[in-house]
Specification:
Blueprint: H1 2-16, H2 18-21, E1 32-37, H3 42-58, E2 63-67, H4 68-79, H5 82-92, H6 94-100, H7 107-118, E3 125-129, H8 131-134, H9 140-151, E4 156-164, E5 168-171, E6 179-180, E7 184-185
Parallel strand pairs: 1-4, 1-7, 2-3, 3-4
Antiparallel strand pairs: 4-5, 5-6
Helix pairs in contact: 5-6, 7-9
């Protein structure tokens, strides 16, 4: 937890850096960043994210802070299938729910929906959180790939409950998913040095 707290404490300075805000040093790649953390520290990360967003707002930054899970709930409500989804998950489990919602929760569809909440022309950056609550319906690597087209040059930070070694996302640090994704680590961990 001490290492995580030290990494959390470095986020504000990193976000305020010209390199981050102007996408400098990313070699022409899209400025997508991942802040990975142990999933058992979810509450600490949520608290810090709340603190961070309040501090950044007071400093006058224009940014979007999107909770993926809350957005999915809103989307399912708008589609009129939320209660049916709850019932299906309760009776038949996660896999049946995932299969049934493929049409509504395709990664491209989620990316389009999130883009309407983000409006990438205005914010200086975007925070995405809540992925752990939305997994396995939403997969980090697939969502980030789907968001590429709509983000332009707006930096995006995904708060990721799991591990990211600079190439592969492993949800919860337990699932060996071997999901390749090319992003930058917002604040590197000791295991990646």
């Amino acid at each position: 937890m001490k290492q995580l707290q030290q990494r959390l404490d470095k986020i504000f300075e990193r976000i305020e850096s010209e390199e981050f805000l102007d996408n400098k040093g990313v070699s022409g790649e899209i400025g997508f960043y991942i802040f990975d953390y142990p999933p058992e520290e979810e509450l600490l990360v949520r608290q810090h994210l709340k603190f961070l967003t309040e501090k950044l707002t007071k400093r006058g930054y224009q940014f979007s802070n999107i909770n993926i899970f809350e957005s999915i709930i809103q989307l399912l409500e708008e589609e009129g299938v939320l209660e049916d989804a709850f019932e299906l998950q309760k009776n038949e489990g996660d896999e049946a729910l995932r299969e049934a919602l493929k049409g509504v929760l395709g990664q491209e569809d989620i990316a389009r929906y999130l883009s309407t909440k983000i409006n990438p022309e205005e914010p200086q950056f975007v925070f995405l959180s809540g992925l752990g609550s939305a997994w396995p319906l939403i997969r980090g690597h697939s969502l980030l790939n789907a968001l590429h087209a709509s983000m332009g040059h707006t930096p995006l930070v995904l708060f990721y409950p799991g591990t990211y070694n600079g190439l592969e996302l492993n949800p919860f640090g337990l699932v060996d998913s071997s999901n390749y994704y090319r992003a930058f680590q917002l604040i590197p961990t000791d295991r990646t040095h």
